[in-house]
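In response to reviewer comment 3 from the previous cycle, which asked for concrete evidence that the modeling workflow produces usable outputs, we include below a single protein chain processed end to end. The sequence was submitted unchanged, and the resulting structure tokens are shown without manual editing.
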Amino acid sequence: MIVQMSRKSDIYHRPGCPYISRIHESYIEAFDMDDHKITHFQPCKYCCNMKTMYRKIQPNLPEIFGIFNYQTEYNGQYIKVHTDSYDWRILLKASEQNMRLLREVHENNGDDLKLIKCDVMKKEKNLQTVIKYIVNQEKLSAYPEPFRNQVMQIKEFAARHYMEIAYDESALYILTDMAAWKIVYRPRRDWFQLFHAPFQGQKLTMEQAKMAYYHLQMDVPWEQSPYKHIKYIYRHDEAKKIEKEDYRNLPQKTKREKHYYQQAKRREQRKSTRRVMNIFEQLERKEDIKQYSFW
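The workflow returned the following structure tokens.
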């Protein structure tokens, strides 16, 4: 956000402040509020306080909230936003004009109040941006909390690559045309584990996928984000399709790709060995039948 001030003063003003009109044009200069030099100046007492910012944005709140019927209030220290899922507090650090966003969580049947910081918004200077973030969090409240930050990325990627996705309390299920996958959040270590259930001849429905037997995908880092997991799923299934046609077409650019290539090569060699052994068994059976028929 760009603020303006007079070269003869050390007080800066937010856009739309009526005091800017009192400064002669030749003396006006501007700088970005994210610039470190903001700490060398003083904020305008009229436009750089939460009360004025709240009063200016109030008429626009119905449009920002859209279909949601949220309530807001200003108590002199912070703005409180009541949503269906949470109560939020928006504070202002006056010296740097940074917003602070906190989420209220009630514990022990509501007796204890815990405030959780939202670090995503800790350097935001625009009140409207903070309120829009709250609205977006409310839209995502139907999803398990560990996945919320990447829900839209996952949704867009899944749609682009024809994956079916579904959530439960702590897991994300993914259906591709090759297999069922499950990403499970482990809160104790704050990581996501990836599980795999290949189709056994017939594609599963999502309900069947939720009841399927999965094995842990050991070659994936557990500290990966859900979005990186779903990208891995896509690459894995694409490699399986190539291997099904001819493993020699698999890429070998990276160390991991070379490792997968060697694995596919060994699998094909084992299959070839089994095919040869099956041919010998069939020939032996035919010889046994001939001998039995002769006698």
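The chain has seven helices and 14 strands. We consider this sufficient to address the reviewer's concern, and the full set will be provided in the supplementary archive.
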